[in-house]
Amino acid sequence: MVRRDEIRPGEVAVEPPAATDAGLVFIGRIRTPWTDRMDCPRQGRRDGPVCRIELFAPWDGGLDGLERYASIEVLYWLDRSRRDLLRQSPKSDGTSRGTFSLRSPVRPNPIGTSLVTLVGIAGGVVSVRGLDCLDGTPLIDLKPDRCGFTPLAPRQPGDDDVDTGRA
Ligand code: SAM
């Protein structure tokens, strides 16, 4: 994993194609104790410090019901990452692996995800434990943890599809 935007022995960078806008909307910002990548946890922990997820208007109006879930999934945009590495050397020892076999922040679309423990929701702010991002990281989405979530919509045929061995 790149820690200071450096290229390490064994790593491979490419010239990425021009971005085509996926139309992402940042719906908030995440407040954490970490201002330097070197201080951030590599992965959040459920007993980590409480972090504040601040929703922007009007998206703060969409939080109703989230309080039912003890565990939620947070998606965020790792905005200070380089995005051009095909191979990375997390151990800095000359060995490298493909970007998509890692959870490194360095990826063509630097989306981070964490399963976090809900601490509370008040005034458009969701307080959680379990994050690992820098202070000010843009928020992409919040969802209930899929393990604790049963779809509220009526079942539909595909819900019962199982592998039949036929392509
Ligand atoms: N838990 C997420 C995941 O697995 O998708 C992110 C894991 S990533 C390894 C976490 C690291 O990303 C942190 O240790 C820090 O070095 C880096 N990082 C955190 N916030 C960042 C940001 N806003 N921009 C760039 N890098 C960031």
Q: Can you tell me the CATH topology?
A: Elongation Factor Tu (Ef-tu), domain 3
Hey, roughly how much beta strand do the residues contain?
25-35%
Within CATH, the superfamily carries the name YaeB-like
In the residues, how many domains can be counted? 1
CATH architecture: Beta Barrel
Helix content: under 10%
CATH classification class: Mainly Beta
The largest beta-sheet arranges its strands as 2-3-8-7-4-9
Q: Report the biggest beta sheet as strand number plus sense, adding barrel if it closes.
A: 6 strands, antiparallel, barrel
Rg, Cα atoms, Å: 18 Å
Ligand names: S-adenosylmethionine
Average pLDDT reading: 94
Categorize the overall geometry: globular
> How many strands appear in the DSSP assignment?
9
Low-pLDDT windows of residues: none
Structural classification: mainly beta
User: What's the order of the H and E elements?
Assistant: EEEEEEEEE
Count helical runs.
Answer: 0
Kindly report how far apart the N and C termini lie.
Answer: 38 Å
